[in-house]
Design brief:
single chain, 95 residues, alpha+beta, three-stranded antiparallel β-sheet, two-stranded antiparallel ribbon, 5 strands
């Protein structure tokens, strides 16, 4: 099992995939979450199986750490890269 630690919390690939499934069930379109695709402070996305996800939100769900308690960007993206996920620049529009 792939596992990394973020602020002392275990993060696994399996837990990230579960958080992505939960996200898909809660938000029909990725932008339904906080209109993140329209906001300039969101710069990256995780791409997985034709969908995109807000990295900071997914990491918060998996780790139990509030999004207010850590930075996005490389701090967050390195966790996902370590687990084999593709990080991309956030698109201006998504299907």
């Amino acid at each position: 099992m792939q596992e990394v630690y973020f602020k002392g919390k275990s993060v696994t690939r399996k837990a990230v995939l579960r958080a992505m499934r939960d996200f898909d069930q809660q938000y029909r379109h990725p932008n339904d979450y906080n209109k993140w695709l329209e906001k300039k402070n969101y710069k990256f996305a995780i791409q997985e199986k034709g969908r995109i996800y807000p990295p900071k939100h997914i990491l918060s769900q998996v780790s139990g750490i509030s999004v207010l308690d850590f930075n996005g960007g490389e701090q967050t993206n390195s966790v996902f890269r370590s687990l084999g996920f593709l990080i991309m620049n956030k698109p201006l529009r998504w299907r």
